[in-house]
Input
Amino acid sequence: MRTSPWIPAFYLGPAVLIMVAACLYPVLSAFQLGFFDWSMGTPWSDARWVGLDSFVSALSDPRVWSSLWTTLQFAAVSVSVEMVAGIALALALERPVRGTAFFRTLFILPMMIAPIAVGLAWRYLFDAQFGLVNAVLGLFGIAARGWLADPTLAFAAIVVADIWQWTPFVFIMMVAALANVDAAVIEASRIDGAKWWQMTFMVKLPMVMHVIAITLMMRLIDAFRVLEVIYVLTFGGPGDSTEILALHIYKTAFVGQQLGAAAAISVLLLVVVVALSWGALRLSNPLKNDR
Amino acid sequence: MKRRDFVKSSAMTVFGAGLPVHGALAQSRYARYAGQTVTFSIPAHPHYDAMLKILPEFTKETGIKVDVDKLAMGRMKEKQLLEMAKSQGDYDLVSYVVMWKGEYVAKNLIHPLERFFRNSALADPAYDLKDIIPIYLENLGMVGGPKGYLAGPGAQLYGLPYGAETSVLAYRRDIFAKHNLQPPGNYDDFAKLLRVLKDKEGIGALASRGQAGHQCVHAWLLHLNPLGGSIFDEEWKVRFNDQAGVKALKFLQEVVATGPAGIPAYGQGESNTAFLQGQAAMYLDSTSLAGLVNDPSKSRIAGKVSWALHPMGTRRASQSGGLGLAIPKNAKNADAGFLLMQWLTSKAQDKACARAGGTPVRNSTMLDAELVRQYPEFITFREALKYSNPDWRPIIPVWDKINVQALGVGISEALTGRKTAEAALNDLVGPVTQIMREANYKV
Output
C-alpha cells in the first residue's frame, strides 16, 4: 500500500512545531538581543540598536576569552574523569552481583539533587574552618586548606563537585547500553579466547560507541552550561579563577545589566558547544549508520 | 543647606503638608484594604527573619494578608527587575539593597513615597518620620540631589530603611581580658592587634568577608573610608588607587593573613559564622550581627562579646547601608503595600522587631530603656551612627557593575596573593573608568 506523502508530515508536524518553538525561538531571540543595548526593567521600546557592537566588544574582551579558557579546562578535566569513572563503574556493576541494585541506586542519587543544593553542600564540605574535607584530611595529619580561597584549589573544588554530580549520568547511560550488547557476540569472543581487557576494549566498548559519543556530547554541553553550582560554590572567584563562561554571561546580564552583550557572548558559547558536539558526533554518529 | 537639615526639611514637607489630623481615620485606615493580599519580596537575612515573627500580627490587626517571597539576596534583584518590568507585577512591596535604589529610580520602577504620606486616608498621624535615624533615611531612602543618591536639592524619598546597618567592632571580652588587651581605638593599634591576637590566642584575629565580587569590595570599603579614601573624587574621576586605597587593601591582606582560614571565600554568612563559632577574636562589620550573638542556637560565644566603635583612621567613618522598603510602580495593591511598610517601620513595630532580634531604624527604639537593657550594645550603636558616612560608597546606577565585575575581581586577586595591592588597584583604573564613560560620566 502506498502511503500518502502527507502522513509523515501529519505525525511529525506537531513535534516539529514544538521543537521550533522551544528550541529555535530562544536561539533566534538571543541573536536578536545581541543587536540591541537593553537593560532589564526597562521597556523593550527603549532598547537601542547597536548593530554588531556587542559581538565586537564580546570578541575583544579579554575577560570573555579568559572565561572561555577556564570553561574549556573545566569541561576537559571534569568530563574526561566523568566518562572514565562512569564507564568503569558501569562495567563493574554490569553483571548482577550481591548488592548491585543498592549500588546502582546509590550512584545515581547525586544526579537527583538540585544544583543549588549541590553547590551549598560542597561549599560546606570545602569550608576551611568547619568542612568535612579538611576534617578528614586532618585525620591523616594533613593541614587544613582554604579550598575555596585559593585559585588552584577552588578550580579543583568545582571540578570535584561536577564529577560527583554527573558521573552517575554516564554510569546510567552505560549500564543501559551494556545491557543491550548482544550476548551471542560476547559468548563468541569468549569462545575465541578473548581475555577480559580484549573483551572490554575490543568488543563491548566499540559496540556501545554510539552511546558513548552521545553521552560525551551531552556532558560537554552540560559542562559548558553549568552555572548554579559554581555560582554558589565560588561565585567565580577567587579573582576570576573559576569564572566559567556561563557565569560570566550571568554577571554581564544580571549584574552589569547588559543583556545585549550577554546575548552576544551566549552566541559565542553556542558556537563553541556546536563545534564540540560536532566533534563528539564525528567519533560515532548513531544517525549516520541508521540511514 | 546642610544635608541633615535637608532631611529634616523634606520630612517636614512630606508630613507638614499632608499630616492627617483626624484620629478616627486611623481606625478605618485598614478597613478598605481588608482581604487584599500584599506580596512582599524579602531576602534571607537575620533582620527579615525577625520581621517574620511579628508579621502575623499585621494580618490580625488589619485583615490584610501577606504573601512573602523570600529569596537569597544574590537572586533577589533579577527577580524584582523581571517582576517590576511587567505591566502589572506580582510584588506590592519589595525589600531592596541600598545599592539598587538608584537603578530602580532611574528605570522608573518604584514610587516616590510622598503621595502615600500625603494621603490622609493612608498615612498614620502617629508615624513620626523624623524619628527614623536620619543617616539611614538619607542613605537608603533618598534619590536625586547633586550626587544622585544623597539628600540635597531635587532629592526625593523613594524608600524607607528596614534592615539598615552601620559598622561596629565586636570583640571577645574573655580573650581580651585574658591577654590584658584593649579594643583598638585607631587603625595603628588595630593593625598591631591583628598579629598579637593571632600569635597569642592561636585563632583568627578578625573575621571578614572576602569572596570575589561584592563581598571583598565591602570588606575593603570598611577600611577605605576611615583611612580617608573613596572610590571617586568630586569630579567622578577614579581615586581608589591612591595612598589611602592601597593602605586599606594592604590592611585587608593582613586581615586575611591573620584571620580564620579561608577568608578569600567568605561571604557575610561565613564571616558571621567564624566569629559566632569562636574562630575569630574580632568582627568588624554590620550591626545585624547583634541579633545573633546571644542566640545559643547560632552562637557559641553568647555572653562573651563586647562592642566598640569602628576604629578611627584619619577620620571616623562607619558604614551606611543595608536594606530598605519600596513600592513598585506596577504593584497591584500599592496602597496596601504602603500600609504594610508603614506598619513595619512604625514606632511600635520597630521595637517589636528589635525585641525579636532585628535591627532598629528609629531613634526612639535605640533609646528605649527596656530594649537597651536587652541590648546594651545599642549605646555603642547610637554613637557609631554619629560617624556613619552616607557617602560610604557611590550608589550610582552602575555601582553594581563596578562593584562586582571590576573591583570585585581585582581585590579578590590581591587577597589571594596573585597581585600586589598596588598592582591590583592600578589595573582596575582602566576598567572602572571605562564603565563610567559608558554610563555617560565625563571622565
Observations:
- Chain B touches chain A through 40 residues (CB under 8 Å).
